[in-house]
Amino acid sequence: MIEQREPVFEVPWHAQVFALTVHLNEAKYFAWQEWVEVFSANLARHGLNKDLNGGDDYFLAWLETLESLLNDLGLAENYEVELTRCAWENAYRLTKHGSPVRLKLF
Predict the structure, then answer these.
(1) pTM, rounded to two decimals
(2) Most distant CA pair in the chain, distance
């Protein structure tokens, strides 16, 4: 009998932000210890000291950590991140259900 397993990530964007973070670390943009320190501080600041199941609360803190590291490293300014976030939300809202979202950047 084949065992049914739960998905590792609840939604695709969790997997995507995880993979992007690992890729940037492996490309030497930041050290994993640096990531851990900033991520731990974000979790503590948000009061996320409960047993996290890897849902949105966890990955929103993960995303915030990635965005702040990229800003600190000069790789993505806060305003660029915000413009991209707004463009994504707008494209998502305007896309017919089931169709791929096309993001038009600046």
Answers:
(1) 0.75
(2) 52
